What does this fold into?
Amino acid sequence: MPTNHQDSARPISGSDFSERLLLWFDREGRKNLPWQQNPTPYRVWLSEVMLQQTQVATVIPYFERFTERYPTIFELAATPDDQVMHLWTGLGYYARARNLLKTARLIVAEHAGQFPDTVEGLTTLPGIGKSTAGAILSLAMKKRAPILDGNVKRVLCRHYAVTGWPDQSATLKQLWALTEQVTPTSRVADYTQGIMDLGATVCTRASPQCGACPLATTCLAFESHTQHLFPEKKTKKKLPTRETRVVIPQRTDGSVRMERRPERGIWGGLWSFSELPAEVDATQWWRNQEGSEPGDTIELAAIAHTFSHFHLVITPILLKVDDPTPRVAEVDSCRWVDPRVPEGLGLPAPIVRLLALLTETKR
It folds into this structure.
């Protein structure tokens, strides 16, 4: 376990910390990321939401597609849910997209399209926490507002040898006090981008480039050769495995029947296939659904997907059926879809894989 070396720390003031970081940012910081161009509150907010739990390289094409399709918050707020969820497909953590829409509509309806200009005002909106609020204020509005994303936590934990898992209450409180202490009153946008860049490109999770770090001479982890021990990791629990079966009714033209999942729960509001209870036969399920006799039933190879808190094994069952009855076709939550072009639907990653499998498999 890391030990707290604060008693032997060489003193460094908050202003020294920020000055070193700003000098480094001027030389080495990233200045050509798409959200750094015309950094409006809308564009910064969109990028910050996308960057939660997601790498910059992954986010860039999504950000560019979103801002091309929805150049302002007004276009985003007016867009049907399915279109936004479809554009988000593959980025994961879909609650972010649902909150994105909720917040866009609230800002348009209640704030005339203008973002609140305080941390307190921003954090009342869905999906905006204190750190995201700080990024919007500092990067877009040039207001002093500390941030504490994953990169910043890593820099501070190493520099000050902060013990404890960063997201536990006591450690988080300490880190917020430190980020408040080192955030300058001037050049706040450059500082905010700089400390995020330092964590992303130099003070990386694995193999940090300490020789290139402007803070190395006062970094307690570097001094004690314990960089690899900070930040402390959360004790990992073995993830449980859950199993489910999904039934994929398919017509002779190749189209498959999909359904929208409930708003709450896993993949809320996204389109998937009907889950089949373990005790129910797929043929009988279709008889109960439609009152008609299906054709062949084919069990496809299972696919696996890992969530943050469990592993999911999905066994797909392909069910050959005749043309849909009007009852199926008229239900808003069900739709017959060409698996080659599932346009306009928000889809979980495993379902995208299943659709690809269906287009590759000739039966």
